[in-house]
TrEMBL record:
Record InterPro entries: Quino_amine_DH_bsu, Stig-like
Name under which the protein is recorded: Lipoprotein
Keywords noted in UniProt: Signal
Domain of life: Bacteria
First and last residue of the signal peptide: 1-22
Pfam families: Stig1
Coiled-coil regions listed: none
Length: 537
């Protein structure tokens, strides 16, 4: 599935340069850590006492191995229960098969809660249990290999389900989907700007050193391979994995780079090598990638220095031979009815793209460059017919969506993340001081069917209240993991048929807990940029 784009976004928009983005890193001193409602400071970090296994119910109260923290109480994770003081899986435990205290006879195994003489085909006998070593967190890949902290077992390898990149903190952090538990944060890279995943590995495009970095999905702090992205201090906005190739666009150098896997994934990385590149044209500022057939669709934002005359379009690149990519043409977006507010000037300024079975959809920010790049029309989608190149517009509604930033297909629906209209304080590290119409919109059959408004969990303007600004997202196990570029949070919203239901956030009392503090605020900096999220399937 095409991933959401990777523009710079610590500042009001991607238009600001890498050097300006670097100002965010300097930040300003702070008196200390201030947490949003529902969170508590433990060891200098904001934590949720209701669900943090290291601080369950109180700072320092650590749950035992195998336990999780639910509603401030340590207990057995879903699918296990407490028997004789230990968390066991009664579906596989030979001493507690089907129920606590029900032991199998000598030589028997426990499978699906019943004692039997041997394991079914495809299952592995580990002691007295029949397990699927491809998915069993206690026997991942082999008997006795238990996955640490909140990792899951993917194809016989331990890894996190979701990974978030913390730009201002220089870290990666893993999340377990479903339970929404956070793993430990790991230092990684010098300026990771975008993420993707492939075969259990995390790909991280580092803008500072111009490298495509790799880490195993279960060992986020260890670099196992790095590949050149050509130019140091570029802006690698998007990574598209399309085996055996990886495509990367750079909005500063205006390039599309093609890498090919030529190694194996046996703990030594993917073995990528650059096999092709094409320049998309000066001042085009390519933002994202989506594939439809043998064509890549690449939104061109354009640059202020050229009055955006080379942007406001979508480039089509032929990849029938991926090692010799060829720019075919560009589709202009300037003829669309952008529904400007009060008839003022507005530009589509495309930000991201996704492909479905029948069409290509591009998120339009709909901004006025002459007015600090503030929205001057509703967030919109451009729908492209790949067979004819015809382009039409979908109005997402200004009351729920301004500055449409990211779009991804989820089944037969589209999820759009709306950055909103945010005002920033340049004297204080570009922290957002106000924001409206930021959140998610769900589109089905080219019609908006649901929306979700991002709520920071505190009163805007109140001391210590850091607002939330929607950013990129990933989808795992039927839920959107939505990053926040202002406070480093990750919101979790379930996607149903025509419905968006908050699971972790501050908008509804039915939520299972507050948003995840994936990238906690550093006391030295006023903002925390959770810059990207990827799912390891």
């Amino acid at each position: 599935m095409p991933r959401a784009p990777r523009p710079l976004e610590s500042t009001p928009l991607a238009l600001l340069s890498v050097s300006l983005l670097a100002l965010v890193l300097t930040g300003c001193p702070d008196e200390g850590v201030v947490c949003t409602a529902g969170l508590t400071v433990c060891e200098g970090t904001c934590v949720d006492l209701r669900g943090d296994t290291a601080h369950c119910g109180a700072c320092g109260n650590t749950c035992s191995t195998g336990e999780v923290c639910q509603d401030s109480v340590c207990g057995c994770r879903a699918g296990t229960e407490s028997c004789d003081g230990a968390c066991v899986d009664t579906a596989t435990d030979v001493a507690h098969c089907g129920a606590c205290g029900t032991a199998c006879a000598t030589g028997q195994v426990c499978e699906a809660g019943a004692c039997r003489e041997g394991c079914s085909e495809g299952l592995l006998r580990c002691g007295g249990a029949c397990v699927d070593a491809r998915t069993d967190v206690l026997n991942c890949g082999a008997c006795g290999v238990a996955c640490p902290d909140v990792q899951s077992c993917h194809a016989g390898r331990c890894a996190y389900d979701v990974v978030t990149a913390c730009f201002t903190n220089g870290q990666l952090v893993g999340i377990q989907a479903g339970t929404d538990q956070l793993g430990p944060r790991r230092e990684f890279g010098a300026g990771v700007q975008s993420l993707a995943s492939w075969d259990g590995f995390v790909l991280a495009a580092d803008m500072t050193n111009g490298k495509l970095l790799q880490a195993a999905g279960g060992n986020l702090g260890t670099l196992i391979e790095e590949d050149s992205l050509g130019v140091v201090s570029g802006s690698p906005n998007d990574i598209l994995v399309d085996p055996p190739y990886v495509y990367v666009v750079d909005s500063v150098n205006n390039t599309l780079q093609v890498l090919k896997r030529e190694g194996t994934a046996q703990g030594n990385g993917l073995g990528l090598r650059t096999v092709g590149q094409v320049n998309l044209g000066a001042n085009t500022s390519p933002q994202a990638l989506a594939r439809f057939g043998d064509t890549l669709f690449i939104p061109l934002f354009g640059t202020a220095s050229s009055s955006f005359q080379h942007g406001n379009a979508v480039a089509r690149v032929d990849i029938s031979n991926p090692e010799q990519p060829r720019k075919v043409d560009t589709l202009s977006l300037t003829g669309l009815d952008l529904k400007p507010f009060g008839g003022g000037p507005v530009m589509p300024l495309p930000y991201s793209v996704t492909a479905t079975r029948s069409a290509v959809y591009v998120a339009l920010t709909n901004l006025n460059p002459a007015n600090d790049y503030r929205p001057n029309g509703p967030g919109m989608l451009a729908r492209i017919d790949p067979s004819t190149g015809a382009v039409s517009a979908i109005d997402l509604g200004a009351e729920r969506c301004l500055n449409a930033g990211y779009v991804e297909a989820v089944g037969d629906q589209l999820v759009v993340a709306c950055i909103g209209e945010a005002l920033y304080d340049p004297e204080n590290g570009y922290i957002a001081t106000s924001v409206r119409s930021t959140g998610l919109v769900l589109v089905k059959d080219d019609t908006v069917v649901a929306s979700y408004a991002l709520n920071p969990g505190c009163q805007p303007g109140a001391p210590g209240c850091v607002l939330s600004v929607a950013s990129r997202f990933a989808v795992a196990k039927g839920a959107v993991y939505l990053a926040d570029t202002n406070a480093g949070r990750v919101f979790v919203v379930e996607v149903g048929d025509g419905r968006l239901t908050e699971r972790r956030g501050y908008s509804t009392p039915e939520a299972k807990g507050p948003a995840l503090e994936a990238c906690p605020l550093d006391p030295r900096r006023p903002v925390s940029n959770a810059i990207d999220v990827t799912a390891l399937h």
